[in-house]
Amino acid sequence: MPRMEDILNLPVQDPPCAEFSAAHINWVKVEGGRQGGDDVALIPFCRVDDFVKGESTNVECPASFRIESRRKRTEGSVSKPRVDGYLEYTLYWCSYGPEDYRDSESGVGENSNYKPQSGKGSRPGRRHMMRGCLCHFTVKRLYTRPFLALIIYNQRNHVDKTGAPCHGILDRDAVGTRAMYAPRISEELRQKVMSMLYVGISLDDIIQHHTEEVERHGGPSSRDDFLTRNDVRNMERVIRHSTRELHENDVHTIRTWVQRHQKNVFYFRDTSVTESFVLGIQTEWQLQQMLRYGHNSSIASHSNFGLKKFKFPLCTLLVFDSCQNAIPVAWVITSCFNGQDIHSWMVPLVERIRTKDPRWKPHAFIMDDPSFEISIIRDAFQCRVLLCLWHVRRSWIRSLLKNSCNFVVQQEMSKHLGRILYCTRDISSAVDAVEEFMQIFVDQCAFMEYFKDRWLPRIDMWVNAMRTLPVANQELNAAIESYHLNVKFKLFNEQHSVSWLRVDWLVHTLTTEFHSLYWLAQYSEETGYFRNLKEGSLSTNSWYRALHIPDVDVILDEEDLRIVRVISQTDRSLAYTIWNPGSEFSLCDCPWSRLGNLCKHVIKVCILCRNRQVARPSMAAQTYRQALLSLLHNPPDDPIVLNHAILHVSRIQQDIKSLEDLSNSGLLQPLPPLETNGHLADNLLPSSRLQ
Is 258 helix (H, G, I), strand (E, B) or coil? Predict the structure, then answer.
């Protein structure tokens, strides 16, 4: 048996699992000293919380360990520290002890003078759960090795002073009572109730809903099934008393928030002279959604939101459920606006995901900002990168509708704007298209001023991105735009205008009220509860609404596709007209589209055109095919060049196969045959392209 003086020679144990318990550790009994005969072990100090969580999930004796006593010292305060001397000393005790009130109706135990080792007396409000449990352990952050923690397990069994089990399934007296289970509700239920409270569900409705759920699965089987009105009232009190402005300077508030919510922060870098501010937020629920919907599917970015109004813009990563609704799975607030600093937070986020599931891999990453470093995204996510034009389309169409009153002019301008982006052969053709557009519509002064100031300096960047990346289809545009409208409605409310420049307000709103709206939407979708509340809280995307329009309600003349009409689903005597159908820059005369939004009628026509294959092949697809045909008919004479060409063709074939898989999953439109009707090709622009 080693002596206490030898503890620094013990191996440092760091189990690979996210949370671990005493069962995962090899314990050593020490001889002599105050801890003589106790089990001890060394672990990294940063993993103490993981150990405490693991110990609380004991199957036979579910427990919750509270901090009974804590002491701290400053470095340099001890001239000759002991080998087990500490910088921090923390005593953890099972919440079912140490007092025992099982045999007392008055709330005072048989030995009213008994006090725990910390010197604290009885705790009013917790006497009903005190069952004399002596299970406790001590954690010392070693003075001479601050990065190590010495765990001293004084009593590993959940027993009372007689040595008998005092709670859990091994305690016969606890059978059928709450003492069979953990003393407190789980974090999962806590988040569920808090989300319900944030979205406005009343206490009575929460209790009634919870009771129905417990009855539905056959009665209580865990502590969560004993949720009481007092539990909910306590959470109401927490919400009511919560405050975001903890300091006049929101920089200090953010630092405090990060310290208190480390489990929800995957990356944080404070502002310095040389480095920008970055805060990456992902709750446990968001992590689970990213694992569930992001694997073998797509991840999309919604970047630079609030660039003009917030102190720092907001970037959101989104996944998509079966109804193509966008779900925010990570928020990044950064002072770097150009997208060149994504490596700092993207790599830690992916590492966090793959720590939970090493096999996790998305099918595609969809970016809406061409300033993002494509190589960084590919290296981090190990997947194909697509370009999404929702931001370009929305900005151009909204400005067009605002600055031009003639609907015919709006139609022609939107068609020419689409041609600018699809000048994918070279930059000179894009420049020619821009010049032609500006000459034709020179009289539209307001829009031209906006276009020159906001977009002309960046048009080359977008055209280059169009030449090198495949473009996502209208379904994804609709999903991302729907999220944009939801976050805009929540955050850009004028009553919050005084707080827009505070980062702490943005963090608080995102992680409480806004987060709860999406939690409710998913919970309602999975269980069927609170559907009325869900429908009134978040807008559904146009793609999902388009699926409810029958094909027979689309009046499409394949001999003349300049316009298509869709019968209204609410007023059968009304039909809406879509100009430039099949393109990202289609226009509809319905009220929703006249606000610059992507409406369900445009999406429905786009889906129908794709299914009937009436859209011409993209320029990139034609280039691929032409390269393959040229290589087939004119093989090179040099065998080295021939081998290289064959390898290149094989790679092209693999790329096409990968993109066909994306098309089958709905991310890209299927490639129509080359023999497309020439008249249709003149009227339809491609909705997606192949790389």
Answer: helix
pLDDT at residue number 319: 95
Residue type, 352: R
DSSP 212-239: HHHHHTTS--SGGGG--HHHHHHHHHHH
pLDDT digits (tens, 9 = 90+) for 138-163: 999 988 888 899 999 988 889 998 88
One domain, residues 291 and 328: yes
DSSP code per residue over 37-102: T-EEEEEEGGGHHHHHHHHTT-SSS---EEEEEEEE--TTS-SS--TT-EEEEEEEEETT-SSB-T
DSSP classification of residue 402: H
Q: How far apart are CA 307 and CA 459, in angstroms?
A: 19
Shared domain for 3 and 77, answered yes or no, is yes
Give pTM, 2 decimals.
0.73
Tally of CB atoms within 10 A around 454: 12
Number of domains in the chain: 6
User: How far is it, in rounded angstroms, from Cα 66 to Cα 551?
Assistant: 62
Q: Any idea what DSSP says for residue 426?
A: -
CB atoms within 10 A of CB 572: 9
My answer on whether 179 and 168 are in the same domain is: yes
Residue 242 sits at the vertex; the CA angle it makes with 238 and 248, to the nearest 5 degrees, is: 165
Domain boundaries, position 636: 620-660
CA–CA distance, 513 with 201 (Å, rounded to integer): 12
For residues 268 and 373, membership in a common domain is answered with yes
